[in-house]
Please model this.
Amino acid sequence: ELPLVESGGGLVQPGGSLRLSCLASGFSFSHYAMHWVRQAPGKGLEYVSTISTDGGSAYYADSVMGRFTISRDNSKSTLFLQLNSLRPEDTAVYYCVKEIPGTTVFDYWGQGTLVTVSS
Amino acid sequence: DIVMTQTPLASPVTLGQPASISCRSSQGLIHSNGKTYLSWLQQRPGQPPRLLLYEISNRFSGVPDRFSGSGAGTDFTLKISRVEAEDVGVYYCLQATHFPWAFGQGTKVEIK
Model:
């Protein structure tokens, strides 16, 4: 399997912040656009954000625009998601996802990290 | 934004029998490059999603040939020719042609 290992999840109060990380290995990280997808407990999958190979372009779902920031450090093969102004509805497992180059096919998913927003 | 609608939402199947899941998009999914970025994902209980099929009908590496995909335009179908116990889980369609990407609600496949 192609490992993508997320970390940084946890319990945070509404209005708080967290920074998620995704460490990639086994492929040339800098050559791949990357994505974040989340899944609320017992619910379906929801697209969150995308970043280009060089980090120069970022895209967000309307539900997180202005609150979340995606970034990457290609020298460390690591993807990040900064979560600010968190709301209870942001409670979810956050998955780091790789795509097939030149496409928008999500071919490998990490195990996910759980973010719980609650007072 | 495009809405992806899956039917049925639950599919009880007898082992060895076929299963079929439909996915309908609110708009056509042909990209300007001529490709259709419609994928199918499987999520087994307690596991992350796994790519099964991409660009409507291409099986991903390691996916058994009992899984097949078809369709065009706005209507797509995932078929399992003979359901096995390991196929239990939730299946999602995903469109990644038009931003924002969108998933179907998921279809739960379970054994009768």
In short: The radius of gyration of chain B is 13 Å. The interface with chain A takes residues 35, 37, 39, 41, 48-51, 54-55, 60, 90, 92, 94, 96-97, 99-106 of chain B (CB under 8 Å). The first strand of chain B starts at residue 4 and ends at 7.
